[in-house]
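Researcher: I'm preparing a figure for a lab meeting and need a structural model of a single chain. I don't have an experimental structure, so a prediction will have to do for now. The sequence is pasted below. Please return the structure as tokens so I can convert it later.
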Amino acid sequence: MPKELGDILGCGELAFCLKAAYGLPSAPRAFFNFVKRTLSNPNGCNLTQSRQDEAVFFRVEGDEYIFVGTWVDDFLVIGNSKRLYDKFYQHYKIAVDDAIDEADLDFMLGVNFTVDYENQTIKLHCEKAINKLVQKYGTPSRQSLVPALESAVELTDLELPVVGSPEYQALRTRAERYRSLVPAILYNVTTVRADCAWITGILCQCLDNPTARHCDAAEILLAYLLTTIGHGINYGGDHIERQLKTVYSPLKDSMTGLSDSNWLAHRSISAFLIYLAGGLILWASKRQPVTSLSSTEAEYYAASACGTEVVAMRHFLAEITNKAHPAATPIYVDNSACVSLARDFNSCKRTKHIDRRVHFLTDYQKMGEIQLIYIPTSKNTADALTKPLAKHKFLEHRNLIVRESAAWGGVKADKPP
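Model: Understood. Here is the structure written out token by token.
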């Protein structure tokens, strides 16, 4: 604790905390331990904590179910049983000995939820968060239909201003705005806007000393978010299922993954997309930890990153549904050599140097958990998360990442009784 407070209390610099007060670093963990004990109490809520995700609690009784997702003191409750919900609500209310705010799912943790009961669809978007960005940083002077220009690929090789140089000093005002704007956009990208993942990752790599081109790219990204403020991730809906089905595979009862990489002279960019129920559930655009010696190696590392997430999600779904997925999850890759390598790692002698930790692709293919399938680059939507694309190509891929409200369809229906 601060020395001044320790002198007042007479305990020095260290003290044993009897109770986690709000605002202390230990408070969230202490509160979660309380939540865990309360929700898992067999004489109370009687929920089961997920082994795959400790923040998720659930209970399934025949055709009735309830799922509770926790984030500190915010809960997301989903279920089809009023009996199970009332039991959870009453026991938790007694445990906290305080009033509990209840509301239909509309907004949580910076994400807007639009539920259409008539069409059985859910849409996640960040309209409220984007409006806050515009209020804070001003309305962009232009519109943009792409998050980054094709020339933005050069940002990865730009030499950054040296601290203290005239260029560094001249950009201080813009750099301060940049340092605040980019992390604010990053939260929207990690929660909903996967279509902006690549450029946001590039901009986050130079928060301390951006160039003028980095600052311009951040303004273009803000303009794109405002232009596409109604876009979001959509789950369910036959029209969405049909469009995705013609490109990849049926998604209603199974997951589908797409993996890609942008092989560069230095460390490549890995990207993957994982779909379930017609919408994205996981995505990433990240620089690889090693320098790949070939495009096949870069694709193999990217497919491995996708495979780990797919296997973990399969285990999670099997746990909460109490049944395993009958078929292997397809992972589409636009590199035929990578597909062959995953089937038999000894098929190529020039891959012996690849880290053994990524060899599990072969093992899980033999176990029937995943299956790598070749797909042409023109149909690989994950390509949009590895580099800036031409406008027409990006818009084609974007329809399978985020969609506009009008295309999602329907007016919000009244909640059924």
